[in-house]
Structure formats: C-alpha cells, structure tokens
Amino acid sequence: MFIARQEGRIVGALPGRLEGRFGGRWFRSQPLGTPAGPCFDPTLAGQGVPALAEVASALWRAVGETARREGWLGGDITLAGPAAAEGAEALRPPADVGAVRYDEAHVIDLSGGVEAWRPSLDKRARAMLRQAPARGVELGHGNGGEDLARVYELFVDQTRAWGVKQVRPLSFYRALMAPPTDARLWIGRLGGEIVCGVLGFVSPEETYVWWSGASPKARPVSAFPATLALLVEDCGSRRVNFGFSGHQSRLTDFKEQLGAAPLSVPVIELTPRPRSPWHALLVLGRAHMRTRAARRRTTKERA
Prior knowledge:
Layout: E1 2-6, E2 9-14, E3 17-21, E4 24-28, E5 39-40, H1 42-45, H2 49-70, E6 75-78, E7 98-109, H3 117-120, H4 123-134, E8 137-142, H5 146-162, H6 170-177, E9 183-190, E10 193-202, E11 207-214, H7 223-234, E12 239-244, H8 249-257, E13 261-270, H9 277-302
Parallel strand pairs: 4-6, 11-12
Antiparallel strand pairs: 1-2, 2-5, 3-4, 6-13, 7-12, 7-13, 8-9, 9-10, 10-11
C-alpha cells in the first residue's frame, strides 16, 4: 500500500497487491476490478479536486518510482471515488506511470430506495428469487468462523474446477472479517448445510460484491441469486457493485437479470518497466495476446 502524509497525518492511500510470476512483478487491485482509489482523507475529499491533486500526485509519483526501482512488468489499478469521476484527470497518473483504459462493471442503483428494486425485475427474475425459500433455502448472515470456513471450502472447490492453482489461505479471509471491518458475509443454507455464500464490502455509498463460493447443490434451488438478493436488500448502500465480468456474456446476462446496469470504469494500466530481455519479451507477448483477444471480442460483437 502506498501512503501520503501531510504534517504526519495520513491523507491518502493507494492499496494493491504485488503479484509475482515468471520472475517478474505486477501491482494490481485484487481481484481485478476491485475499487482501489486513490483513497483520500474525508476532510480533503470534501474540498474537491484541487485539494486532492497534490496528494494524488505524491501517490502516483511513489508508484512510478517503485515500478522503476523494482522493474515491475505492469499492473492494473481500478480507479474509485473522486479519481473515477469525469473531469478528474488531475487525480490520475502522468503518462509515464500509466494509461487509462475502460472496463465494464455492473451496478444496481438503489438511490431511489431498495423497496423499488425487486418489483423492477422482470417476471422471470422475480420467479427465480422466489424459488429459493419455496424449496427450503434459508438465507441469513454468516460469521467469520465456521460459516466463513465452509464458504471457503466451496470457493476452493470452484477454483479447482476452473483450473486455478493458487488461492489465498483461509487466514486471509478471516483477517478481512475480523472486527473492526466493513466486510460482511451472507449465506444460503439447504437442510442446515451452507450451500453458498457471498462476501461484500459495505459502505453507505456502495457495497462491492468481492468474493463468493457455491456448491452444486445451490443451483437447482436458486440459492446463489437469492443470497445476492438478500445482500442487495440488506446492505443499506446507495448502490451495489457486482464488479467486472471479464467480457463473459453468461456473467453479464446473470447480473443484468438481477437488475444491474453496465457502468464504464476507468482502470490505470501501469507502464511496464522490464529490466531484462526475457521480461521485455514477456511484456510484448502479453500485449500481443491482449490485442488479439480484443479483436476477437470486437469481431464477435459485430457478428
């Protein structure tokens, strides 16, 4: 995490995670799409962009200097808060640190009142959400002990099926749930057994759906969408952010079925600083793969 101070007081921060692969390092919001900031002291944030520009500049300068010193091969930082707003270029990094690209998240706007959300869904979605309690699913809040451990087991089983080899240990998630925390866990039970769970970070402005796990038993009884529905109606935020979908239509369709609308989100793509010919070739190869993937998506969209 990068921190900015004024007169010894922390006034800004930029969190992230160093990811090591192939002998190189990337600095990223984790997982991809998680709002990273920069975060600002609320007193400064209330004064508008000019008051924040000096703090943001110091944070981005530290990111750039560290990237050069350590030879980072790139990374992604999802902008959030004041830096994500239109006209906030002064809070974004200079071109030698990183460039802005845009990705698509899906959010549910609850500013008009949560009671209007469920009636706004189409008939099929409302029927899906009614299925879970009708089929014996019990919805509620989970704890950071046995409940979290069970959802973690479900998550690990899912990642194995997806071919993911590395996952964070359970202790990482326990630390997130330890008070004081903005993290909350919602769960669905069937016959007393937890079959799915969703962990979100809650604030008055936004609840971010960050992590989940689900058993194959959850699908026939619609337990997972019902658990998400509980989160939406229970969180108390002005909007719920389902995050990015990796351009997977099945995910975007599911989110839109729950009333989420697409939102263009700025992401800083950090400038690679390779320090060896091997890493330079690796950076070029990854850039070529991204370009090909983007062309395939464009071709598919036009078809």
